[in-house]
């Protein structure tokens, strides 16, 4: 990792008796893009607000570049922030909005004009300086909000669900744009979102939050492919979670529905009869047998969703339901609801969840 820029040490926050952030520990490198991902109410915004200085932590410290900033006021922290609602000043032009912090911060007029120009180029809105927010699309307004946050050359950028008020197509293009600008400026960035795709596609690392604590911290690849817990598996992506029972711990045998699978690495510490949750990615499952697939289970087709190039099929296996994607090859008709089905997979792809 790059040199550490930001450290959260045992960070916690309680409102009265209600602990909403609990012992969050994290080192973030210079220039790193880190997302806090989690369902509504898990405490991600509160973490961001503590980093910004809008909330005082109940426990722990926030260290920036080796300096404890926990008790500094927001305006002493060199932070740029963008919120979900664009929060532009409606009665100010684009240029005045972008230059707002510069004026407040006492930057000279010529210098401010130059920086506003730079920012407009950066966000691809040169020529828009005289417009007012109501004359801009939602995506353009959010780019102006980003320019306003960056104009004062902050040391860190905090983004609180900046894309969630936009429609799907703009959201996708702004994701890429924000990431490109962030990389260009090499600015350490923290992004709060409840959208797993957003977090996975934009971030260097993702912190999955649950009930105030960091459930898992890792790269998108690690979080998606190696979820540490059932919660992460469920929340990130469409991972299938299957409930099994250990039938022979010594040889790694687990009963799943009416079938049985064998875990290659065995089952250290488990006892026969223990309940066990196993995760399996949809793309690791085939409909019907496949060469090399040593795991097989039979069930019944529950749903078939035609998505174009891919057909998403849900197969019921007794109590469990698994989702899998098959490619539409245009000559094979899709399976029908109610048909008997066999699924197959490589047992090496089964992941034991904590
Ligand atoms: P969302 O995505 O809905 O914004 P979040 O994960 O960002 O959720 P937070 O906004 O951090 O969650 O809130 C975490 C918990 O803290 C919630 O239960 C919320 O009601 C509570 N909370 C937040 N701010 C305050 C406050 N000022 N006083 C009391 N409780 C608060």
UniProtKB/TrEMBL annotation:
GO terms for biological process: quaternary ammonium group transport. GO terms for molecular function: ATP binding; ATP hydrolysis activity; transmembrane transporter activity. Gene3D superfamilies: 2.40.50.100, P-loop containing nucleotide triphosphate hydrolases (3.40.50.300). GO terms for cellular component: ATP-binding cassette (ABC) transporter complex. Residues 6-236 form the ABC transporter domain. InterPro entries: AAA+_ATPase (IPR003593), ABC_SmlMolc_Importer (IPR050093), ABC_transporter-like_ATP-bd (IPR003439), ABC_transporter-like_CS (IPR017871), Mo/tungstate-bd_C_term_dom (IPR008995), P-loop_NTPase (IPR027417), Transp-assoc_OB_typ2 (IPR013611). This is Spermidine/putrescine ABC transporter ATP-binding protein. It comes from Manganibacter manganicus.
